[in-house]
Amino acid sequence: MLLNEVTCWLCRSSVISQQPSVRRTSTAGILCIGRRCNLWSQSWRRCCMVASFRLTLEEKTLEGETFLTLAVKAGLVENVKMLLDHGASPHTTNSKNESPLLLAVRAGSHQMVSCLIAGGAQVGQVCLKKWTAMHEASRAGCVHVMELLLQHGGQVSQTDQHGVTPLGIAAEYSHAEVLELLIKHGADVNAQAPNGDSVLYDAAGSGNPDCIDILLQHGANPNIHNLSSQLPIHRAAYEGHYLALRILIPITTRRALRLSGHSPIHSAADGGHAHCLELLLQKGFDINALLAPHISENYGDMRKSPLYFAVSNGDATCTEMLLKSGAKPDLDPLCCLLVAVRSGRYEIVKLLLAAKANVNCYFTAVNDTVFPTALQYCLKDEVMMRLLLNNGYDAEKCFCCNHDDDWDDLTESDYSQHQEEKVAFCDFVSVSWLVNLVGRVVLILLEYVGQVSLCGKLTKILEKHKEWPHIQLDHT
Questions:
Q1: Which of 293, 298, 321, 294 minimizes the C-alpha distance to 306?
Q2: What is the pTM of this model?
Q3: With 70 as the cut, is the pLDDT of residue 5 above it?
Q4: Rg (CA), the chain
């Protein structure tokens, strides 16, 4: 009678949904059973178990959870024990390929983990992305759970799909106690992932000085590069971890830095960390250190200087610090000033001009022009244009060309054919996507030059613009 009553209750609760060949159970329904079973007597729970045996204990909900994974997630230890006692497999994973043991470790439940191991759970079971309970314990930072896993066969050298050991995970998540425990059980402090990242590199990324000290005390090498030529000191500088950086500076060799092809000054500037820049400068690092060719060529703009990183990131604070400390503004193939002008960074442009950046620099990789390059990037921005002109931009170069007065209009195809030659201003602005700007630009330029000649080509273009009467007046 009791068994029938339980079965009827299950049906009324819509726990079971049967289809011709597949039976599925809703998460809500199973959780409902799990919670009620937790309140009922032991005999009543067993009755429920027996009554529901027409569903196997490995059935999954629509969301892909099993009875056991749901019980573990809900933290119901007694229900987990009962399911295991009645044959539920501790190895069956949910739809995310997470085992009950991994979920118990994630919850940090020593009792649940112990129960599952006693029920046959395998500590080394590989889940999604080759992630194991050991990796999960390292991420969670639960020392007691890690001890339990190690006592039952946990492997300190097992790697996930990225080739990272539990020690690397503990370092990444700043769990010093777990680090010490794993090292005590033989973990390799100089283990490297396939991309070359060392455990110390991971620790530098998290910035925990205690973790870094523990690794160094047990022989971790701070001079191991990864495949991107990055050292732990670069990682600490990029992430802005001041204390970690202070530890790594005196123990990182100049040889290792030279072989890496770049300075931690680059990393700190790229990360935007002025306090780390200041520390590195105090320790004697060269503010004008240049990227080695094999590093520079990884960037499309072929950048070289630390200042370039700050400018390209739009970081006025680091730009100002670097310039005040003696950074040279014109060390890169694409000058920092051009980068700032193109990005419309007025404050940074002012800082660079105050530091004597060459306002008349050229970048010929795209357009080899007669006039200095900066004007190309601010034809629509009068404020930026005047900022350059007021600081010595050579406006007269915009009126230098070899055109005769009867020069016919240059077509866009002609423009393309003349790219191998130096391009005059009148040619540059005559294309369809710029020609509408010419009137206003020329009117401004004429304010900053003496008597100049307007070639026939430029005159023909200007005659079509509303500014032409004013230009005639200013030009005569």
A1: 321
A2: 0.82
A3: no
A4: 35
